[in-house]
Design goal:
The protein has one domain: 3-Layer(aba) Sandwich (Rossmann fold), CATH 3.40.50.11550. Helix content is about 50%, strand content about 10%. Helix 8 packs across helix 11 and helix 10 packs across helix 11. The protein is globular, with a radius of gyration of 18 Å.
Amino acid sequence: MRNLAILLCALVVMASPGHADELIPDDVLSAMTSADVVILGEIHDNPQHHVIQAEALKAINPSAVVWEMVTEEGAQRLADKAVSNPEELARILEWIESGWPPLSMYYPVFQASDAPVYGAMVPRTAARAAMERGAATALGADAARYGLTVPLPRDEQAAREADQLAAHCDAIPESALPQLVAIQRLRDAVLTRSILRATDETGGPVAVITGNGHARKDRGIPTFLSRLRPGLNVFVLGQSEDGEITGEFDAVIDSPGIEREDPCLAFQTQN
């Protein structure tokens, strides 16, 4: 596999449609279009990140698109029915109930490709099982294959727990941190399983719509793919805000940050 150096593309763009060659540097487009799997990271509620994902899909022309935000059942319902408007899409995918940002942000990404949709969202029941009994139990028979039966190295486990604590505004008990790490590992594994299934069933290339945390090369989906299918050419795009991002990627495209409420306020009101 090609191992590109991390490129921080100082590409600051307004949240409006554009062509791929205007939003994505030529060398990044070239790497994407020659890859077997293209993982398109995002910050979920940044609209410009989805504009860039949509343009990337048009350039890649994938044979399948794996979505973190869609369950396997939702993808099957979508495959069985023609969708002509966003309201119908939201109903079929039960989008409002899923808790993701408004579908209006993601609709251009769905429109950008007519390739089959593969769902990789972990259902709530599986997430609860991961919290209560561990990621391996939640994944079932595939757990050993995906490495979930093996504990993370102590320093990596500690780093991941520290990240989870910071992400939750230092407002959750330390006893809950291993459970949150287990859920993250489960989601990485489920995404990887969907990518491999999509590759086997369609021949690729496969595009993946997911958050930066699952996309990162040093910790997320790529670590699973390199172990399970080392021959795949995987390209990973991270998307930052105002130059800030955590993790390793093949390329990073920067967009302006958006105004959002302080997420820590929710924890303060609970106290």
